[in-house]
Specification:
This protein is mainly α. Helices cover 74% and strands 1% of the residues. α8 crosses α9. About 2% of the residues have low confidence.
């Protein structure tokens, strides 16, 4: 075992000692977190020959270390930064997400190194490192969620009203769904499927309004689910590419919707709110429905992730292996239909597709295995969702557009990291 490897492991051990052990003298920390990030930068430098992917993490240590110096802010003159509170909240969220990604990836790479050198050390430490990665990820995520829910009185969302807390709950339910389903959409080459579903949902709302229903959204949910099942059937029975089938269904749905909305000289303007969405339309019953769908999707993911991914990448091979391609595709399409339809009134028909594709696209840029792929997609979706809601709250912008712009930024950053790697 070479000396650089030993030195890198020592740097990493001391780094986590400084990061996770807190000893204070009055208000002064005797184990500064900034020192921990400096030691992690040295560890990355020492270990990058063993695992070249660590080079991607090196540039992150400096800004994270700089942010860690905020624990000594009490030494500076008292400045009134209340007018920049929304910006500081955004920065805090960005740092939380970056820190979470750094530790997850660093410990994963460290476990790979430990597995390769197990023969030299006489013991394989990789399982312990992977367990440590899981513990750090879960505890850090839980602490961050509590912080942003306002349990901590200094949290950026501590001033949220009950209504705004409801909006945050909606984001925390719908964004994991977008993150997980995004991977299936991208791998199935169905990037515009959500647009087609949005058009069918619009048609359903028009039909529900024409029939005089109190809440036409449930008609939209039903029609979108039927639309998704018909799409799955037609794609299965024909030799046409997915985008061709999507184009046929999408054009038919939007034409039928416009026809019904303007039937008898009706006005289309009453449906304009569906184009950009309104976060104020969030209702507890719809959140509960999406929570049930999230539970079903997670269980399906845990039980048959390999079959789902194989069905998306190579349906013919999956079929030959006995995988129920049609039924898995039907459940997957129906889940997307309900999620898109319910959340369409919140985020807007114009950007609904932008929430379903970028999370997985960004995750593909940096993921190195099938485990990291859906996890990164989920984290990107949830992070962008919280950041977009915060931005919408502080500056009064559209929540759907704000979330989409954050996802676009995440895609750009991951693309640049991929190119550098």
């Amino acid at each position: 075992m070479n000396s650089k490897l030993i030195r890198g492991v020592q740097y990493a051990a001391w780094a986590y000692f400084f990061l996770y052990l807190d000893i204070n003298l009055n208000r002064f920390s005797l184990l500064p977190n900034a020192v921990g990030w400096y030691l992690l930068s040295r560890a990355v430098t020492a270990l990058e020959e063993e695992h070249p992917d660590l080079r991607l993490l090196g540039p992150l240590t400096f800004p994270l270390g700089l942010w860690a110096l905020k624990q000594y802010a009490f030494l500076l003159p008292a400045w009134d930064l209340s007018q920049f509170s929304w910006l500081l909240s955004w920065l805090a969220l960005a740092v939380e997400l970056t820190t979470l990604y750094f530790h997850f990836q660093f410990l994963t790479d460290l476990a790979d190194i430990a597995a390769r050198h197990a023969g030299e050390t006489g013991r394989d430490f990789s399982p312990a490192l992977l367990r440590a990665r899981t513990v750090v990820t879960v505890l850090s995520t839980a602490a961050s969620v509590l912080f942003y829910l306002g349990v901590d009185s200094s949290g950026p969302l501590s001033s949220f009203s009950i209504a705004l807390t409801l909006f945050l709950l909606a984001v925390l339910v719908v964004t994991p769904l977008f993150g997980l389903l995004s991977t299936m959409v991208v791998e199935s080459r169905m990037a515009f499927f959500s647009d087609a579903l949005g058009h069918s949902a619009f048609t359903g709302i028009a039909i529900g309004t024409l029939c005089g229903l109190a809440d036409p959204l449930w008609m939209a949910v039903l029609l979108a689910a039927v639309f998704a099942l018909l799409f799955t059937y037609v794609r299965r029975k024909s030799n046409m590419a997915s985008d061709t089938v999507i184009g046929v269904f999408s054009s038919t749905a939007v034409a039928l919707g416009i026809f019904i909305a303007t039937f008898g000289g009706g006005s289309f303007t009453q449906y304009n709110s569906l184009l950009i969405g309104d976060i104020l339309s969030v209702e507890p019953a719809k959140i509960a429905l999406l929570a049930v769908i999230l539970l079903v999707v997670v269980l399906l993911w845990l039980c048959s992730f390999n079959q789902l991914m194989l069905s998306s990448i190579h349906p013919a091979l999956a079929d030959s292996r006995g995988v129920g391609v049609f039924w898995q595709g039907a459940v997957f399409s129906a889940a997307i239909a309900v999620v898109v339809t319910v959340s369409m009134t919140w985020v807007g028909l114009l950007v609904i597709n932008s929430l379903l594709v970028p999370p997985a696209a960004a995750a593909r840029n940096i993921s190195r295995n099938m485990f990291q792929y859906p996890l990164c997609s989920l984290l990107f979706a949830v992070g962008a969702g919280i950041a977009g809601l915060m931005t919408s709250y502080y500056i009064g912008s559209s929540a759907g557009a704000s979330i989409t712009l954050y996802l676009a930024g995440i895609f750009l950053v991951t693309f640049l990291l991929r190119k550098r790697g």
